Amino acid sequence: MYGDSNDDSNDVFKVDFKYYKRRAMRPDLSTVIDFERPEDFPIELHARLQTTPDCGDIGIVADTELLCYSVPANPGLIVLPNPFTPRGQRQWISRTLRSYPHPPNRTNLKALRPPDLFPASLNRDTFYKQLRWVTLGVHHDWDTKVYDLENVSAFPACLGTLVKKLAALLGYPGFEPEAAIVNYYAVNSTLSGHVDRSELDLDSPLFSVSFGQTAVFLIGGATRDIKPTAMFLRSGDVVVMSGESRVAYHAVPLVLPRGDDKPWSSASEGCGDSAVADWSSEAEYLSDHRINLNVRQVFAKS
C-alpha cells in the first residue's frame, strides 16, 4: 500500500504505522482527522456538555458548552477537544513534570531520582532527558505486563478529581481512577501499536489527556488486520476509549511541532498561582515534547 514489504501485507495496522512514522518522505496528513475542522471529516457530534462553575478549580473552562465527538469507524471512541484554560494546562503540565516523577511514584529510571531542585533547563538535566514514563496509584509492571498489587501508592487527589469530573461530564459517573501512566515523548519518538488489557476491569473506559506538541494518533480494532483511523491530538485534548475501542490497537507514530500555536499560553492571562508562577523550565521542555496522561480503573466494582 505504502511501499512496504509483503511481510506486512496482513498487518494493516503496522503498514499505516510505518507510513506515518517515516522520516525520509513526509506522510500525507490531509486525511488525518482534525477535530478543529469537524465538518471536513467522517466524525459525528457525540454530545454537548455543560460545564459547571467548579470546573474552573481543576483547570477546565467553567460555565461553558463543550462539544465532544465520536468516530463511527471506532465504536466507543469519544474525543473532547481541549476543555482546559491556558492556566489549567500550565497547572497540569507542571504537575506531570514537578510532582509526579517523585517517589513513591515509579519511573523508567530505576537508578536515577529526580533532582531536589527543579532544573532551570529540563532538556539539559540527566533525569529529565531520560524520563519516559511515570506510574501512579496501582503501579504497572512493564516486565510482566500486569499490575503490581503489592506496590500501590496513593492516587493523586487532584488528578482523581479531574478525571471524575471528566467522567461525569462524558457519561461515566461511576468511574473510579485507580492507576495512571504518564508518558513523555520527544518530537522524534513514537509509541508502537498495542492494546491496554492489563486491567482486571476492561468494561470501564480509559481516559487520556494530551499536553504539549501535537500527535498523530492511530486507533484500529481488536486485531491488527483492521485499518486504523488516524487523528490529530492537540494539547488539552481528552480521549475516552470505551466499548470496542477500549481493547483496540492504538499507537502514536508521529509527534509534530506546533510552531507558534501554544494553547497553554495566553497573553491576556497571567500566571497568578504559585504552581505555575515560574514557567520557563516547562516552556522550554514543551517546545519539543508531548506529555500524555492516561488513567484507568483497575478493579471491577461489585
Describe this structure in a few short sentences.
With 302 residues, the protein is of the alpha+beta class. Helix content is 16%, strand content 28%. A hairpin with a 4-residue loop joins strand 5 and strand 6.
Essential attributes:
302 residues; alpha+beta; ten-stranded antiparallel β-sheet; four-stranded antiparallel β-sheet; 14 strands; disordered N terminus; Fe2OG dioxygenase domain-containing protein; iron; broad specificity oxidative DNA demethylase activity; metal-binding
Number of helices: 5
- Label the structural class: alpha+beta
**Uncertain regions spanning at least 5 consecutive residues:** 1-6, 267-275
Q: Termini, distance in Å?
A: 47 Å
Percentage of residues in helical conformation: 10-25%
Q: Calculate the mean pLDDT score and round it.
A: 90
GO biological process, one term: oxidative RNA demethylation
Domain Fe2OG dioxygenase: 176-299
GO molecular function, one term: oxidative RNA demethylase activity
Protein name: Fe2OG dioxygenase domain-containing protein
List the helices and strands and how they pair.
Layout: H1 12-21, E1 44-50, E2 65-70, E3 77-80, H2 86-99, E4 106-107, H3 126-130, E5 133-141, E6 146-152, H4 157-169, E7 179-186, E8 191-194, E9 206-212, E10 214-219, E11 229-233, E12 238-241, E13 250-256, H5 280-286, E14 289-296
Antiparallel strand pairs: 1-2, 2-3, 3-12, 4-5, 5-6, 5-7, 7-14, 8-13, 9-12, 9-14, 10-11, 10-13
